[in-house]
């Protein structure tokens, strides 16, 4: 929390990509503009059905995809939050 307001860039491994962590980032890190979400080692996704918040000031987001999971549900959940993105990089 001490550095939350100055955080501009974050990389999250699959273990931390949960609706709770994303909600906390949205609430505590208002200046977050760059995010990397690494799903590359995922065998399944966490449940995002309760996700109500996502960082909204992102300019750049990189998503490392997994070969074995389908991302449509997650992308639908974040779609309304990422309308200000300038670059979406999918790997």
**Using DSSP, what is the number of strands?**
4
Average the pLDDT over all residues and give the rounded result: 90
Structural class based on helices, strands and sheet pairing: alpha/beta
Shape: globular
Number of domains: 1
**Strand line-up across the major sheet:** 1-2-3-4
**Tally the helices: what do you get?**
2
> Gap between N and C termini, in Å?
30 Å
**Percentage of β-strand residues:** 15-25%
Architecture in CATH?
Answer: Alpha-Beta Horseshoe
- The CATH topology turns out to be Leucine-rich repeat, LRR (right-handed beta-alpha superhelix)
- At the fourth level of CATH, the homologous superfamily is Ribonuclease Inhibitor
| Fraction of residues in helix | 10-25%
State the CATH class.
Alpha Beta
Order of helices and strands: EHEEHE
Largest sheet: 4 strands, parallel
Detailed description of the structure:
- By secondary structure, the protein is α/β, with parallel strands linked by helices.
- The protein has one domain (4-90): Ribonuclease Inhibitor (Leucine-rich repeat, LRR (right-handed beta-alpha superhelix)), CATH 3.80.10.
- The protein has two helices and four strands.
- It has a four-stranded parallel sheet with strand order 1-2-3-4, with no helix packed on it.
- It is globular.
- The mean pLDDT is 90.
């Amino acid at each position: 929390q001490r550095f939350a307001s100055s955080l501009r860039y974050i990389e999250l491994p699959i273990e931390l990509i949960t609706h709770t962590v994303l909600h906390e980032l949205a609430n505590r890190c208002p200046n977050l503009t760059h995010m990397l979400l690494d799903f590359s080692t995922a065998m399944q996704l966490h449940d995002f059905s309760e996700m109500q918040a996502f960082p909204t000031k992102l300019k750049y987001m990189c998503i490392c995809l997994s070969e074995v999971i389908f991302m449509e549900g997650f992308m639908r959940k974040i779609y309304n939050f990422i309308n200000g993105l300038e670059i979406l990089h999918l790997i």
